[in-house]
Write a structure and sequence with these properties.
With 350 residues, the chain is α/β, with parallel strands linked by helices. The protein is built from twelve helices and eleven strands. The protein folds into two domains: 217 residues, Rossmann fold (3-Layer(aba) Sandwich); 100 residues, 3-Layer(aba) Sandwich (Rossmann fold), CATH 3.40.50.1100.
C-alpha cells in the first residue's frame, strides 16, 4: 500500500507553507501581524506556486507537450521556480533575464540545468527588453512554450486556488487585511480575490517601492515613476492581466530606507531574516496596522529566501552608497511616523 505521507516529486512540496506571527510588531501595534513563509517552497520563493500552476495548466490545455522547451522572461525568482518545475517534469527551460539582478538568482537557475540568456536592462518600450525577447523567442520556435507570467492568469489561479485557502485555513478564518508588493500582480490578485470572498470587509494594501508606477497609476490613471528602488522583481510600469484581477482597497509607496530599517529590527528582535521585497511587505504590514489600529489580523508574505538579497540588502557598502542608514529609527518611531502620515498620501479605492 502506498504511503501517502511521502511525496513522489519535488513539485509536491510546493505550497502549504507556514504562517508565522512577527512578535515584535504584533506587541508594538496590538495587531496580529502574520508572515506567510513562502521561502519554505523548494525553490525558495512564492514564485514556485505560479511556476507550477502555469506549467500544469499548459499541459492540461495541450499548449505544452513533451519535448518542448519552456521560455520565460524574469528578474529571477520565477525563473528559479520554472527551472525546478521543468527539471521535475522533464522539460527544458530557457530563461531571459536582465543584467544586474542578484548573482545568487542567476546561479540557482543554472544549477537546475536551465539555459540562461542575459540581456541589457532597458525600458519596456525597447524591443530588446527581457519580456519582449522572451516573447519573441517563444513565438519564433514552434517547439517553445512562452510562460508569459504577467498576462497568464494561471499565475493568479495559483494563489486563488491554493495560497488564499491556505491563509484562510491557517488563520481560522480571521484575516482583516492583506498586504503585498506587486510584481506580476498574481500574488495580490489571487489572494485578495479569494480572501475578499470570505471576508467582504477585507482591506488589501498594495505597497509600491520608489521607482514603480503602480501607485501613480492608481492615483491618477497614468504610470509615472519617481525615485529608484534597489528591490528586484517588484514594481511595474504597465497594466497587466494578473494585476487587473486584484481587489485593492489601499495603496501606498514606501522608500528603501524603511525596508532596510524593518529588516534590521525584525532580524535583531525576532530572528527573522527578510529579503528586500519581504522587508517592504513587512513595512507595509506595520503601516496598515498603524492606520487600522489594534485588534486586527494582518497577513503579508515572506517572498523568498533572504540569502537572495545578500549582494544588496546585506551588503554594507551597497547600502552606504545608496545613502541609507542602518537603524535610522526605532520601531516605535517608525510606527509613530506611519500613524501621522497625512491621509492624502494613502490611496483609497472603492
Amino acid at each position: 500500500m502506498e504511503n501517502t505521507n511521502i511525496c513522489n516529486k519535488v513539485t509536491e512540496l510546493i505550497g502549504n507553507t507556514d504562517l508565522l506571527r512577527i512578535d515584535s510588531l504584533s506587541q508594538l501595534t496590538g495587531c496580529e501581524i502574520l508572515l506567510k513563509c513562502e521561502q519554505q517552497n523548494p525553490g525558495g520563493s512564492i514564485k514556485d506556486r505560479a511556476a507550477l500552476q502555469m506549467v500544469l495548466d499548459a499541459i492540461d490545455t495541450g499548449k505544452l507537450k513533451p519535448g518542448m522547451t519552456i521560455v520565460e522572461g524574469t528578474a529571477g525568482n520565477t525563473g528559479i521556480g520554472l527551472a525546478l518545475v521543468a527539471k521535475a517534469l522533464n522539460f527544458k527551460l530557457l530563461v531571459v533575464m536582465p543584467k544586474g539582478q542578484a548573482k545568487e538568482k542567476e546561479k540557482m537557475i543554472e544549477l537546475y540545468g536551465a539555459q540562461l540568456k542575459l540581456v541589457d536592462a532597458c525600458p519596456f518600450s525597447d524591443p530588446n527588453h527581457f519580456y519582449h525577447t522572451a516573447k519573441r523567442l517563444g513565438e519564433e520556435n514552434e517547439h517553445y512554450w512562452w510562460a508569459d507570467q504577467f498576462e497568464n492568469i494561471s499565475n493568479y489561479r495559483a494563489h486563488y486556488l491554493h495560497t488564499g485557502p491556505d491563509i484562510w485555513q491557517q488563520s481560522e478564518g480571521n484575516v482583516d487585511a492583506l498586504v503585498s508588493v506587486v510584481g506580476t500582480g498574481g500574488t495580490i490578485a489571487g489572494n485578495s480575490a479569494f480572501l475578499s470572498k470570505q471576508n467582504p470587509n477585507l482591506q488589501t494594501w498594495l505597497i509600491d517601492p520608489d521607482g514603480s508606477g503602480i501607485y501613480s497609476f492608481l492615483k491618477t490613471g497614468h504610470y509615472q515613476a519617481t525615485g529608484s528602488s534597489f528591490t528586484e522583481g517588484i514594481g511595474i510600469m504597465r497594466s497587466v492581466e494578473n494585476f487587473r484581477q486584484a481587489n485593492i482597497t489601499h495603496a501606498i509607496t514606501l522608500p528603501d530606507q524603511d525596508l532596510v530599517t524593518l529588516s534590521d529590527h525584525v532580524s535583531a528582535q525576532d530572528g527573522i531574516f527578510l529579503g528586500s521585497s519581504s522587508a517592504l511587505n513587512v513595512a507595509g504590514a506595520l503601516f496598515a496596522a498603524a492606520r487600522m489600529g489594534p485588534k486586527h489580523t494582518i497577513v503579508t508574505f515572506c517572498c523568498d529566501l533572504a540569502a537572495r538579497s545578500y549582494g544588496k540588502l546585506f551588503n554594507p557598502e551597497f547600502i552606504h552608497n545608496k545613502g541609507i542608514i542602518h537603524n535610522k529609527e526605532s520601531l516605535a518611531e517608525i510606527y509613530a511616523r506611519y500613524r501621522n502620515i497625512a491621509e492624502e498620501h494613502i490611496i483609497k479605492l472603492s
